Amino acid sequence: MRHVRALMLGVALIALVVAGVGYAALNELRAPADPRGEPVEFVIRPGASTSEIATQLRSQGLIRQPILFTWLSRSQDLDGRLQAGRYVLSPTMTMSQITIALQTARIEDVQVTFVEGMRLEEIADTLEAAEIVEATAFLEAARDGARFRNEFFLLNSLPDGASLEGYLFPDTYRFPQQANPNDVIRRMLNRFVEQYATIERSVQVPNVNVHQLVTMASIVQRESALVDEMPLIAGVFWNRLKPENAPIVGGGLLGADATIQYAVGYSTVEQTWWRKNLTMTDLQIESPYNTRLRPGLPPGPIASPGLDALRATAQPDDANGYLFFVASCELDGSHNFAASFTEFLQYEAEWLACQ
Question: According to UniProt, where does the site described as Important for catalytic activity lie (predicted)?
Answer without folding.
Answer: 223
